[in-house]
Specification:
The protein is α+β, with helices and mostly antiparallel strands and 110 residues long. Helix content is 45%, strand content 30%. It has a single domain, classed as 2-Layer Sandwich (Double Stranded RNA Binding Domain). It has a five-stranded antiparallel sheet with strand order 1-5-4-3-2. Helix 2 packs across helix 3. The termini are far apart.
Length: 110
């Protein structure tokens, strides 16, 4: 069982969902930040390890909470309610699909 499936199973126990964002690097993070800005998300907490192997950011969108986990400054996972998660995930994927063809690939190879 992959880590994503395991995390998703544990998240469903507490009524949340987990999704990993496609790709890695700055393009994904920029698309996520733009999507959260469009949804008027407000960051209210940040925590993680001292060396940034894992960084957790918590956002409030309306009355709902969204957790953004960044591992090794590359892989990004999001945690939250099903509706909110699909809204954020869909916004990020739409923004990434509008990128020029070389932008995402160049950052992934670095």
């Amino acid at each position: 069982m992959s880590y994503a499936r395991l995390r998703s199973a544990f998240a469903s126990i507490i009524g949340w969902r987990y999704r990993e964002l496609p790709g890695m690097g700055g393009a994904v993070r920029q698309a996520l930040d733009e999507t959260l800005s469009d949804l008027q998300a407000r960051k209210y907490k940040e925590c993680g390890t001292p060396c940034y192997e894992l960084n957790n950011e918590y956002y409030r969108i309306g009355k709902r909470t969204l957790k953004v986990s960044t591992e090794d400054e590359m892989e990004i996972g999001i945690w939250g309610s099903k509706e909110l998660l699909e809204q954020v995930y869909g916004g990020v994927v739409r923004r990434l699909s509008n990128l020029p063809s070389g932008v995402g690939a160049a950052e992934q190879t670095e």
